[in-house]
Structure formats: structure tokens, C-alpha cells
Model the fold of this input.
Amino acid sequence: MEQILLGAISLGLLWSIMTLGVYISFRVLDVADMTVEGSITLGAAVCARMIVSGNDPYLALIIAFFAGTCAGLVTGLLHTKLRIPILLSGILTMIALYSINLRVMGMSNISMLRMTTAYSFVSDLFNVSKTIAVMILGGGMAILLVLFLYWFFGTEIGSAIRATGNNLYMVRAQGINTDSTIIIGLMLANGLVALAGGLIAQSQNYSDVQMGTGSIVIGLASLIIGEVLFGKRSFFSRLLSMLFGAITYRIIIALVLRMGMAADDLKLFTAITVALALSLPRFKDLKDVLKASMKGRKSNA
Done:
């Protein structure tokens, strides 16, 4: 059981970086960006191809991040310059990335077994197992990214991106180029998603062209669980809650599998979880309406 929990926590830390990317697009920019499903595979494909070609695994992660920003740039340009709706722009980029990912890998999947990864250095340095190495590297990068994002969104351009998501027309009235803020936000979001893809691929020692399927739902599930369980007190706490949300989601999945749920039903379970979590505000409103109705009846009586 302990090994299962450690595995869930280590995997959750890696997916938390992807959740931070989803948070930027879904909450900060207030858009539904489907590019995520292609950019996470892009990061994995770039890392796998570079590692099997003999390149440094840390350099592969940096290149994966910039590859993800390019994917976000394409979606941003389609939306802002060609005026294609953001949902359709993300879908178009996601579809294009499927072919690009196949081109990058040269095949549908690449194995990295017995090859040096980013975790190999950490494992040798601290003389720990790979699971612990994943927790050290993944947790360290996740915390550093939270600190960076907290600083970045406090800068002038970061504040403009946040304001764009809150009220697009007010920001335009202030003379800010909202096309630029949207593009930068999408680039940063997909860069983080691709970085997470590279870390996940190195953790599982392979990259597959289908690994991004359903990743947007996993990201949303982690995001919503984090917000519901760990609150929305401040911007920093929201960023930090993405880490705890991703870890909690992975622990839930591990426990559900332990209880006997078929692996084929995981995506259905995740979809139901997200739907229920998104519906919580609606249930709360209905509860308030019922309370108000009951009070009205008592006062009339």
C-alpha cells in the first residue's frame, strides 16, 4: 500500500505541472484550450526523440518546453489574428499536432528503457529509488514553477494577462493589446503542459502518440479538486492548490484501482468526477433557493 501511495504522489507531482498550465488557460485566461491534448504528447515526443539520439535529458526538457510554447503560439494566432473561436483553434492545433508528434518520433511510440533520464542523475546523487527521485525532481520543479508563476503574474505583463481573463473589454479600454496577452498566456500554458509531458515520458520510460488522450479532463479534475478541497483564499494558494489537487486525484485513482475498478473505466470515472465538481456551485445555488423558499413559507404562516 505504501508503494502504491508513493507512486501516486510521484505521478501527481508530475501531472501538477500540467495542471498549472491548464489553470493558466482555464482560470486565468478564462478559455477552454484543447491544445493541451496535443502539446503534452509533443513534450513527450521531443524528449524521447532527443534522449534516444544521445542528447542530455535536461536539455530535452528545455526544448520540450519551447516546443509547447510554439503550439500555444499557433493556437493564439488562429484565435486572435484569424478570429477562429478559441475552442476550435485548440482543436485544430491538437489535430495538427498528432501528425507532428508522429513526425517527431518517427513511429507511434518510443521506448527509453535502460537509457539515462533526468531521474537517473537524481537517483545516483541521493542514492534513492526511481520513485523517490521522481518525487524529488517533480516536487522541486513544481514548487519552483509555482513561485515563478506567482512572481510573473505580479509583473505588469502578468497582471495584464490576468486582467484580460477577468474583463477583456475593460483591458482594451485601457489601451492594452489583448491579442498579445492571450497569445503569451497560451504559450506559457502549453509550455508547462509540454514540460510535464517530457517529465512523464521520462518517468514511464516511453512516449506514445496516444498518451495525451483525455489529458485535458485529468487536468480539469485536478484543478477542480484542488480548488474545492484547498480553497481560493489568495492567488498563491490557488497555484499551490493545483499541486495538492493533482496529488489528491492520483491518490483517488490509485485507491479506486486498488478497490477493483477496471482500468478501462478510469476515463468514465474522471469525467463523472469533473462533471460533479463543476456542478457544485449549481447545487449550492439550489440549496440557497430552497432555504429562502422555506423561510418565506414560515414567515407567511
